[in-house]
Amino acid sequence: MAKYFLGIDIGGTKIASGLVSAEGKLKKSIILPTLAERGKNVSLNQLFISIDMLLKTGGVSKKDIKGIGVCAPGPLNPQKRIIYNPPNLQGWVKVPLGDLVEERLKIKTKVENDANAAGVAEMLWGSAKGYKNIFYVTVSTGIGTGIIIDGKLYHGKNGMAGEGGHVTISYNDETVLCACGSKGCIEALASGPNTVKRFLKNISRGPEGESLTVNMTKNGAADITMKTIADAAKRGDSLAIKTIQEEGRFLGIWLGNMINILDPEIIVIGGGVSLIGNLLFKEIKDTVKKHTINIFASKTPIVAAKLKKNVGVFGAAAIAMI
Amino acid sequence: MAKYFLGIDIGGTKIASGLVSAEGKLKKSIILPTLAERGKNVSLNQLFISIDMLLKTGGVSKKDIKGIGVCAPGPLNPQKRIIYNPPNLQGWVKVPLGDLVEERLKIKTKVENDANAAGVAEMLWGSAKGYKNIFYVTVSTGIGTGIIIDGKLYHGKNGMAGEGGHVTISYNDETVLCACGSKGCIEALASGPNTVKRFLKNISRGPEGESLTVNMTKNGAADITMKTIADAAKRGDSLAIKTIQEEGRFLGIWLGNMINILDPEIIVIGGGVSLIGNLLFKEIKDTVKKHTINIFASKTPIVAAKLKKNVGVFGAAAIAMI
C-alpha cells in the first residue's frame, strides 16, 4: 500500500525533496543544486535525479508513493500544471511540469506555487489544523500568500489568484518601488530585505543610528539581516524595535484589507520574518483591528506558522495529499 | 406552480420591492417609504406592507412566489440572515430578518447585502451572464463589492467578505479620510461624492477652475454632482475630464490589487458612476494592466453592469433564485 507523499520544492539555487507520511512525518529528505544557470534541461534533470536518489536512499519503491507534489516559483498555472517563465529558472518557458513528471514516474503529480502549498501544509499539519478557510502569508525574501476556501486552494481563472504580496497600500509612494513595477506593494514595504533596507536608511540618519546592530555583525552595517535586527530588538535596541513595529503596522494595514475582502477563519504567517515572534505579532494584531470594518475581525486568529524547517517539502507533499 | 421571485431592497429612505420571473422580467414593482426614523417596528411593518401591496397589485398569490430575497444595508450576516446595526436603520440591532419574513410569509427567504445581490443579478440576467467567477463593483454614494466563486456568493467566516470598498491604496494619506476610520480606502478616493469633492477643490484652485460645470447648474458649484461632471466631460471640459480620469486611475490601481488576489473571470462595474462610460472605463482598463502581476489580466473583461434601474429589486430577487 502506498505510504508516502513525495514533495519537491524547486528553487532558483536548490531542489529540496522529501518523503512525507499522511500524518506529516518527514521520513527522508535530500537537497540537490538546481544548476539553473545551465538551462532547463539540466535543472529538470536535477529534479529527476532528486526523485531517484530520494527513493533509493529512503528505501522505498515507486509503489510506496501515493502522489507527487512539486512547488516551483511562479508564474505558474496549478490547474494546467504549467510553469510559465520564472525569473530564476533560466530557459523555463511554458514547461508542462506536471505532465513531464507524471509521464516519467507514472505517479499522479500536482504543481503549485510555494505560498499556496505552504498554506495547505499548515492546514494539514500546522497551525491551521482544523480550519478550512485560511489566509496564509509567508514573509521572507518576498511576500507570498495562499487562499484556502472550504479546504481547497483558491486559484482563480488563470491559476494566478493569491498574489497578495503585490497589493499596494501606498500607490503613489515613489520611495517604495516594487520589483513588479508598482509602488507601495506590501512586499516592497515589509519583506525581509526591504525592512533591512529601511533599517539601514535610518541608521545612517543620525541620532536614531545609535543602534546595537552595527556591533553585532562582523562587517558592520553591510552584514545586517532581519535576524540581526530581531536579535537587537530582543536586546532592547530602540531602532530595531521601531523597525519591527513599523513592519508590523504595514502588515496589519494590509491584513485589515485582506480581512475586509476575504473574512478568513484564520490568518497564518510563516516565512523567516514570522520567527521574530510577539513584538511583530502584537503590532500586526493591534493594527488589524484599526484597519478593518469587519466587526468580527478582532476574533480572527492571527498566528505564526508551525512548519518552519522544510516547509517547502511539506508544502509540496501536502498538495499531493489534497 | 410558483412563478416569481419576490425581491425587496430596504434602504434608509425607501423600500423597493418587485416580482421578478426566472428569466429576469420585472412583472411589478412598488416603492414605500422606510420611515426609518420611527424605529424598527415601523420600518419592519413597512416591509410587510410592501409585500402585501405587491402581491395584491401584482395580482399574484403567495403560492405563485418561489422565494423571497431581501437586501439590506450592512453589517449583516447572510448565512444567519441577521441584520446587525446599519447606521441608517434606526433601532435595528441584531434583527433576524430572514426568520421574521419566513415565519410571516411561510416562503423561503434569503438575506443579503446590496452589492453581493447586485452581483448575482448581473450573473443571472446581466453583463456577467455565462460567467461563474465574478468580481462585482458598485460605485455610487459608496463603493461596494461582491465576490462570486463557482456561481455562488463568497461570504467568508462571518458573512462579512467582499467589503472591497474599504481596501486602502493610500494608507497614510491624511487628506483622504474614510468614514470607516481608515485612510485612503478606495471608497474615500473614488466614490461619487468623494470625486465631486475633489473636483470642487480643484475648481477653487485657480486656473484649472475655469470649468464649464459652474455654468451648468442652477446654484453653481453647490449643485454639482457626478452627473454634472460627466456631462461637462462630454462637452470637453478639461477639469471634468481630468477628474474622471483620476477616478479611473484610482479604480484601476485598486482593481489591479483585486485581480492579484482573486484572478476573477470578469469584473462588472455598476452603480451611478459606471454610467459615465468609456472615458472612465478606458482609464480603468489602462491602469489595471500597469498594476497587476497577473500575466493574463489584460484579457480579463472589465465591463459596465447591465442592470441599472431597479438593480436593488433585481438583486434581491436574484439571491432568492440561486
UniProtKB/TrEMBL annotation, chains A, B:
Q: PANTHER family annotated for this entry? A: BIFUNCTIONAL UDP-N-ACETYLGLUCOSAMINE 2-EPIMERASE_N-ACETYLMANNOSAMINE KINASE, ROK (REPRESSOR, ORF, KINASE) FAMILY
Q: Does the keyword Phosphoprotein apply?
A: no
- Extract the GO molecular function terms from the UniProt entry: kinase activity
The reply on keyword 4Fe-4S is no
Record-linked Pfam families? ROK
Coiled coil spans: none
SUPFAM superfamilies the record matches: Actin-like ATPase domain (SSF53067)
**What family is this protein classified in?**
Belongs to the ROK (NagC/XylR) family.
**Name assigned to this protein:** ROK family glucokinase
Q: Which UniProt keywords apply?
A: Kinase, Transferase
